């Protein structure tokens, strides 16, 4: 008997609704505010909303919650659309809360006429003080009992621009003693004399999220309005507005937002990092933005797989950053071509190798996929290896190169270190070796074994590349946990970026930025053997190659912890 598939709680709700005929098909929405770039938390919401709709034969709307003209911009609208497409999703339609401004205004007038909304002249501080606390009821505004006629007149004049910013608001008239603080006469509209990125100066009053969101869902007939857990306390108000207006009953459901250690995902804090130049921009590869992950070399598939792996929960928890990196490792291990690059080079001379001789050896492109075939890599008398791959006197469990010890050079020969040359400060400048010509290809005909295998690059054929070694932006698991007088910025990792000049095998001269099937810039991705996964950066040119480290081969932070 086939086992029943495990469903998350949202899938159970959807399947029950479809069984009972509550709806014939589902329609979800992804409703970002265009006031910043999307981050990995948004990726989870995107995968959830679009993924559920796809699974159950439904559709997903992209709706921009553009109700605050002070912070919003078309730059963010464009970036959001690009990120969604890059992740592999397409929306049924693009909508804006601003599409519904006229309808929302008419519904607000309807609530005023029903005695359920009023214009309040109190300041924000007075309104906040009058709301009370979770244990104490609020106090009615002195303007709460204005007549319907007076409220209609004032609200129209608010729309016409007769009043200054902050001088008046429109509030719902519900219950200032309600145990749910959201019901204590929430603000529906505020005055903002600011140019809107779509409507220009047509409006100077703008609806608040709690008023606009549910009605926008209703207009679009959204069957499942899926939000993160912090909005669960807002759901009763969401339902209240829909009920009082007698409009199509969309419904809200909540899931646990994505929290990852070693990062922050507050848009305000991310904007601060950008504006104060702690990072190079929204797409800095250390940022948790989707465009930052893309520039770092993450694949859309790896992010989708990560979101599926962590699942959908009803309780907040913190996900280990390594799970995100492992998702990338798992994918790139399958698809990334192998190349050799030496990031901290030291020169090796093979004394018994003919000076003018060079060979072109077969190297496997990807052992996980034999169909990727092989490439030719040059071998010569002078090579580069990693400085950390040699010790003059090695401890017992050191299996790399040391004086008198034999190791394998990947795809090439066995070599033995015989002596070293040093500069005036005692730094090793050259390792002199001998090789066994009978071990070409990496195996000894007499069956002898070596424990160490090193990558290398022929010095004569090497090409230089700038390599940016990115690490986690923060040095602590919870960057927001700070001592008094400090901020999250005090937890920045001073070693989050190190730039080196690497010696690379010549085939990497062909590395280029590409474009995916949606026209979005896409880096070329590689595994630099033994060093990690790397990708081309948009700064890269044929004359000056630039690679970003996407992640190491293993979780390097595990040793630190």
Write a brief caption for the model.
With 561 residues, the protein is an alpha/beta fold.
Structure characterization notes:
- The protein has 13 helices and 31 strands.
- Helix 8 links the parallel strand 8 and strand 9.
- Helix 2 packs across helix 11 and helix 11 packs across helix 12.
- The protein is elongated and about 100 Å long.
- By secondary structure, the chain is α/β, with parallel strands linked by helices.
- Strands 12-29-30-31-25-26-13 form a 7-stranded mixed beta sheet, covered by helices on one side. Strands 23-20-21-22-14-17-24 form a 7-stranded mixed beta sheet, with no helix packed on it.
Mean pLDDT: 95
Q: In this structure, how is the largest beta sheet organized?
A: 7 strands, mixed
Query: Could you estimate the helical fraction of the residues in percent?
Result: 25-40%
* Structural class estimated from helices and strands: alpha/beta
What amount of the residues lies in strands?
15-25%
What is the strand arrangement across the widest sheet?
Answer: 12-29-30-31-25-26-13
Q: Could you list the spans in which at least 5 consecutive residues all have pLDDT below 50?
A: none
Helix count from the secondary structure assignment: 13
Write down how many β-strands occur, each being a DSSP E stretch of 2 or more residues.
31
Cα end-to-end separation = 45 Å
Shape: elongated
- Taking Cα atoms only, what radius of gyration do you get, to the nearest Å? 31 Å
